[in-house]
Known about the structure:
By secondary structure, this protein is mainly alpha-helical. The chain has helices spanning 8-23, 48-63, 87-90, 115-131, 145-169, 177-191, 204-216, 221-233, and strands at 70-74, 94-98, 103-107. The protein is globular.
Amino acid sequence: MFGLRIDEDTQDWVIDSFFWAIDNQLLTPNTRAIHVTKSNFPAPNGPHQEVAQALIHAIQKHLGIENQDIVAAPLNGLPAEYRHQYGQFSSVGGTWQSDGTQALITYDPETITQRRAFLSTLVHEVMHHRLHMTALDMPGGPEAEELSTDLHCITTGFGALQMQGAEEAGWQGYLRQETRAFAYAVFLLLTEPDSNTRDNGLPSRSSRLVKKASKLLRNRQDDMHELRDALHSKG
């Protein structure tokens, strides 16, 4: 019934960020949507730290940085039974830090039962590592790093997971869900133009947002043509 609420400045930032992703080889002609399957994210049935480490390694492989030394460790979060009273703590799902040689990703083991939300958080933290392998000169600059990190989870193929994870967790994260939908529509139109964004691998609510975003992109055909030309010139 209603259109997508995403202003022109945000649209411009998303489009500019896709150009940046192409220039920095985060998005290449071979990039495709990465859906949640056992083959894409193999993990053992074991202690949560082993599961998190295996998932992080799988994410690294998708990003082509499996040679980077990234270690998983649980963070000391608020017990699950108290989180409904102290909701501000529940948004700290993970952290990333690095000494330049080895990186550490911490995660909240209480969230591991929310499979897509947990995996989405790990993708976000690994993406911090990937972005720090660049000059961090992305649109918006270093001060927009968290927003850019969410966005580049989408430019690199994890868009469906990011939207599913946000729905499952019941919170927005750094990007609004409508901004994610707009970015994912851009991604699908660039990488799977024949799909027309219909088969987007999302639950109904998020799927409707992506379809609305694809209609909004009809007004940005020149930008989409330039993005396609930039993407295929890198092939």
